[in-house]
Amino acid sequence: MNIVVCVKFVPDSTADQAFESDNTVDRVGVPGLLSELDEYAVEQALQLKEKNEAPDSVTVTALSVGPEGAADAIRKALQMGADAGVHVVDDAIAGSDALATSKVLAAAIKKVGDVDVIVCGMASTDGGMSVVPAMLAERLDLPQVTFASVIESQGNQFRIKRDGDIATEVIGAVAPLVLSVTDQTGEARYPSFKGIMAAKKKPLESYSLADLGVDAGEVGLSAAWTAVDSTEARPPRTAGTIVTDEDGSGAKALTEFLASKKFI
Amino acid sequence: MTEILVLVDHLEGAVRKPTYELLAIAKRLGTPSAVFIGGADKADAAVAAVTKFGAEKVYVVDDAEIKGYLVAPKAEALQQIAAQASPGAILISSSAEGKEIAGRLAVKLDSGLITDAVDVQVDGGSPVTTQSVFAGNFTVQAKVTQGTPIITVKPNAAAPEEVAGAGTVENVTVTISDSAKKAQVVASQPRQSSGRPELTEAAIVVSGGRGTGGDFSEVEGLADSLGAAVGASRAAVDSGWVPHTFQIGQTGKTVSPQLYIAAGISGAIQHRAGMQTSKTIIAINKDEEAPIFELVDFGVVGDLKSVLPAASSAITASKG
Ligand SMILES: Cc1cc2nc3c(=O)[nH]c(=O)nc-3n(C[C@H](O)[C@H](O)[C@H](O)COP(=O)(O)OP(=O)(O)OC[C@H]3O[C@@H](n4cnc5c(N)ncnc54)[C@H](O)[C@@H]3O)c2cc1C
Ligand SMILES: Cc1cc2nc3c(=O)[nH]c(=O)nc-3n(C[C@H](O)[C@H](O)[C@H](O)COP(=O)(O)OP(=O)(O)OC[C@H]3O[C@@H](n4cnc5c(N)ncnc54)[C@H](O)[C@@H]3O)c2cc1C
After folding, report:
1. Is A113 exposed, middle or buried (0-12, 13-18, 19+ CB in 10 A)?
2. Rounded to two decimals, what is the model's pTM?
3. Chain A interface test: which of B71, B79, B105, B182 (most A C-beta within 10 Å)
4. How far is the CA of A96 from the centre of ligand 2 (A)?
5. pLDDT tens column, B253-263
6. DSSP letter string over B76-108?
7. Integer Cα distance of A75 and A79 in angstroms
8. For residue B299, which ligand has an atom nearest its CA?
9. Mind listing the pLDDT tens digit for each residue in B208-249?
């Protein structure tokens, strides 16, 4: 069985995020890392491997489309236990929209070949669109089982649970398929010392667009089908009033504040 | 004027409020046409509802054959209607399913996609969106430059306008491919309705965190005195005190109500990501150093177990 787990390299969300003068995300000045939500995807990919009857026959490949630094995100996945890495890096990709990103990812997945399960995170922590898994399913003509909180599989039969707004649902599909997982699937493992050492010997291939047969004119900022006109930092909130409750004074002040704002 | 397609978000024919907001936005951009994909017996009620809020035309797709299949068939249906209507834009609610339908449709139509718009205006005849990004720290204005703009819109992005449209019904027969029927809902357990407003649509949200110690009755009491929805932090959800659908934040819901009240919530960055753009923010926390106080318009340092019930009774009393 072949599993590809898609991992995105994102600006650290605890640092100050920023935009460049061309309104693309500052991916150089802000430190980057493996999107926290994709760690859950790596974890589930590894569990699928470990639960397989013949774990050694299962290959987990971590795939990332992104700048030089994205190799770090792939390396983290290798340290956690993925078997191989694929990094698509090409200057022409910078500024790609979701359509172009999914096109490059789909081409890379085809290059890996014979993939049974594609595991994605529920959303990136920067763009956060939650659309790439559905776009991949569309491009590869595969079923999608997304926003899984629990995953069960038997052979190529998959069942996932998801907590929708209206109902809790069980969704079934047969591999090959695209899976996306939420942070409800359970904490991701930390790389062990052994894992960190082993990762150094694991294959990490780097592809350009030409290697994948994708025309550079179809991706990147100039080919993006959405254009950002302006970006603006949200003005900081003005400091509020803070009171300390003493014998019911807090509730009284709170009620007065609500009344002054016409909420009651 | 060009048609603007609005995918109707409904539950067994009961149209949800964000659809009316989309119709109001569609009116700015062209002629609103609603697309109802659902049970044939539910169509009349849905058609009447969207007509009341301005739909000039309603495409009705009987979902008998595709019910229980996720996302893909709806994207195929919309593709076929778009081929016939050549719309100026396609508007879809920013729910998890709505965004995935939009994603597949964008690939099918070779069109640009913008998700999670909090406002849509017109500039030179084409839509310009506002998005709130990076945990609400930036606002971004964008437009689609290729194909048919596909835009998913967050709840509360516009006020519904109750001005009736013509509501001309057009029944559409769509052909759904076999490959769109490969992921199927095999079991479904509907959620109990709380009787409170929908979290993402509510004007007021009262949320509880680990500080409740597991007893949400004070949070619910305050919510009910204000007619508010109830939310929670991930700590409260992970402890099993409330369902995941209550969670606000990066991996839960994003809310932007008129008033957000956080009780016993510290204000972690992942929680802020889901509530930072609320108009007015109030926190009740016994730790004066809690980071949530950096965001508030009004804060009470105190025990929620005494502050919330006292506030609830005062509010209820003030209403007479
Ligand atoms: C603030 C902001 C707003 C944006 N708005 C838009 C917009 O409105 N329209 C638009 O078309 N583009 C937009 N983009 C660009 C878009 O985010 C990127 O093209 C991105 O690569 C794909 O979308 P996402 O990050 O939102 O992914 P999501 O759909 O949220 O990602 C889900 C999963 O897909 C996988 N994945 C996504 N990207 C990669 C990758 N590069 N490598 C490996 N795996 C990946 C991961 O498993 C991830 O967990 C925006 C970007 C930013 C930063
Ligand atoms: C990948 C990832 C995604 C995440 N996504 C989310 C998300 O979507 N939403 C989210 O909320 N979190 C999310 N988190 C978790 C987040 O980091 C915090 O752990 C969480 O928000 C903490 O919840 P809390 O504020 O209720 O608990 P705590 O941080 O423990 O805070 C409890 C607060 O209650 C106060 N308190 C205690 N007793 C009382 C009392 N009697 N009266 C008044 N105040 C009292 C304390 O002073 C404290 O400030 C995520 C984390 C990760 C790693």
Report:
1. exposed
2. 0.94
3. B182
4. 35
5. 999 999 999 99
6. HHHHHHHHHH--SEEEEE-SHHHHHHHHHHHHH
7. 6
8. 2
9. 999 999 999 999 999 999 999 999 999 999 999 999 999 999
